[in-house]
Design goal:
The protein has 61 residues and is of the alpha+beta class. It is 13% helix and 13% strand.
């Protein structure tokens, strides 16, 4: 069975784990409706994407 030659130092372990942190999802304010939406996604309230109507707008209930 293979055995590591040296113990991984805390510095190397930290460098490997530096990319494991979770980041908060990004949201942008829509220009037309003012609602928050994910970048590069359709605004579900208005049904628009990049100024073009893609889906039918949601009816307010």
């Amino acid at each position: 069975m293979a055995v590591p030659r040296k113990k991984v130092s805390p510095m190397k372990r930290g460098q490997r784990r530096a990319h494991d942190a979770l980041s908060a999802p990004a949201y942008v304010e829509d220009k037309d409706s003012g609602e928050l939406r994910r970048p590069h996604h359709i605004d579900l309230k208005t049904g628009k994407y990049r100024g073009r109507q893609i889906l039918a707008p949601k009816a307010d209930v």
